[in-house]
Amino acid sequence: MAAKTAAVGGKRKATMGVKGKPKAMAKKARLEDNKKAAPAAEDSDDSDDASDSDDGGVQLSDKIKESKPAAKGYQKTFEPGLTSRESHAKQKQLAAERKAAKPLADEVQRTKKIWERLRRKSHVPKEERQQLVAELFTIITGRMKDFVLKHDAVRAVQTAIKYATSEQRKQIARELEGSYAQLAESRYAKFFIGKLLVQNDDEIRDLIIPDFYGRVRKLINHAEASWILDDIYRTVATKQQKAFLLREWYGPEFTLKELTKDKAVTADLKEILADTPSKRGPIMKSLLEMINTLVQKRMGGFTMLHDAMLQYYLATEPGSEEFKEFMELIKGDETGDLLKNLAFTRSGSRLVCLLLAYGSAKDRKQLLKSYKDTFMAMAGDQYAHLVILTAYDVIDDTKLTAKSIFPELVGEKTEEVVDNIVGAVNNPHARLAFMYLFEGMSKSLFPPGSTFAQDILTEVHEIRKTTSKKDTDARRQELASTLTPHLLEAIATAPADLMSTAFGCQFIADILLCNTGDKAAALEAVAQAAKGNPNEEVPEDEVQPRTHISKTPFGGRMLKSLIQGGRFDKAAGKIIPLEPALGFSNILYPVISDYIVDWATGPSSFVVVALLEAGDFSDAAAVRKTLKKNKKLLEKAAKEQTPEQKAAQEAKEQAAEADKSAGKKKAASKKKTEPAVGNSGSKLLLEKL
């Protein structure tokens, strides 16, 4: 081996190349390998000492081996006298012996064999599966905790839960009672908890969740346990259990069950602070620290975090130091992930709406910027779309709002615009992003059964009275005028797609009955979509058969509204026509004139009634003349059951028969009413003739 040429303490500087980098020639010297075998004879002690002192080197141990691969033709060895194959075989044998020496080694091995068989459900007959499950329960009963904490055995226990009876699942849950917090921290056992809870058994739920009480502050910060804890909180916990879990964010004292033993538990922070105002400082500090810890860890997707943030925000006074500090905490997330996650939960969306409502113009701009490239997904979400509607309502800079939101919702190319709008219009939430500017808080826009959206928007409208300067109607009109050309383009390009659904027909009527934009092309396209024979049979081999617009109740209502040319005013008790008038009656009649009798005797007969009642319709005389010639058909339609009436009667009779066979008693009705028979529109037309 080459001797060192420098003393131990001496260092040489490498010659510097371009930009301060050492030259290639100045690289550190490598120890050269000797291709020949080292001599067997050892040097004397004297020579070793002399060499050490002269050269300044340190003697290398004989045990240090070269890392360079053996040259071709030489056999690499791992132990004296063993080849690579023999050494690996020995290592494998030792590993198997160590594994066999572990507790429950044989049982774990058998459970794995059973699992391998059970997981192939389609290949295992029912009787054999029952036998395997019974054997599996025999092995794991009484030693459940030992199995679920082993990464390879926990899968077998999960399979046992899958095929177990309700009583067997409860048996597993009872055996593990008191261990669920520990299992939640396990990388693999946390999924076992999810398997138990997914069965929707109240007894199992009430065994598992109380085990987390007093440990929430620790578990929510744990890398593994935090996810299963939040899933439990979000999906299966009752209102009371959620309150117990969320209260622990307010401070260590809230982990003591004795404090809430004799009273109803609430997680409403405002209420808690009202009862104990002296503890406001410690509680708010503890909660903010918990929130900040998770935000800094980039764990902003937890529903429990969003609930805690909303509680903190509602407990602050607008304009206070706590209020400003919290706003800065949220704005300080440079990635914007926190705000994006907040928008998609119930509490989070309300929080963002309140932030927009109370924020300054600068705050609103920054909050809106955080949602870049997310507005399309937000529009279709049941909670996130409220953030878009709030932005419409509170941001005074309408150019900023339109520039930030509309390009993402609508798109740029014509095909993209049409696809996006048609898709959004048929989504119960996304359609509000377009129609809210025209309909406002109309009940027909919001999904039935929930007032959550209306409650938030009403709250925002109350706040904006003191935080926004622009007139409400002016703000909405400016936004609508920017959006309308895109919507009219979609109606003109794809009227048939829109008219095939109830939401699409409502959208067309709302946009065409507004006072903005050039509607000529859209009105003509809607009229052309109504052409053709209403009674023509739809080919059976057609991939996507479409019913004629006159056969759909929503299509008839839309055409009638457009012919009337205005919206119904409840206060005035009449329809207020647009100025200038739409004139749709004169656009539609030439398209449907050949089949006017079919329209008059069909499901959309009120379209013909609206034509005769329209003040600007120029062909009323021709329509009356045609109908008089076919008066017998009108009389027949007015007397006979319509297909819809016949179907309704048959359904009623079937329901009565089903109740009778089930032994249900018929409820006594106060007054027997005869079902209506005949086409109501045809009856009105006969009166007008």
UniProtKB/TrEMBL annotation:
Single GO cellular component term: nucleolus
Basic residues compositional bias, start-end: 10-28
InterPro entries cross-referenced by the UniProt entry: ARM-like, ARM-type_fold, CPL_dom, PUM-HD, PUM3, Pumilio_RNA-bd_rpt
One of the protein's GO biological processes: regulation of translation
Residues covered by the PUM-HD domain: 69-445
Biased composition annotated in UniProt, kind: Acidic residues: 42-55
Its biological purpose: RNA-binding nucleolar protein required for pre-rRNA processing. Involved in production of 18S rRNA and assembly of small ribosomal subunit.
Protein name per the record: Armadillo-type fold protein
Organism: Cordyceps fumosorosea (strain ARSEF 2679) (Isaria fumosorosea)
Phylogenetic classification of the source organism: Eukaryota, Fungi, Dikarya, Ascomycota, Pezizomycotina
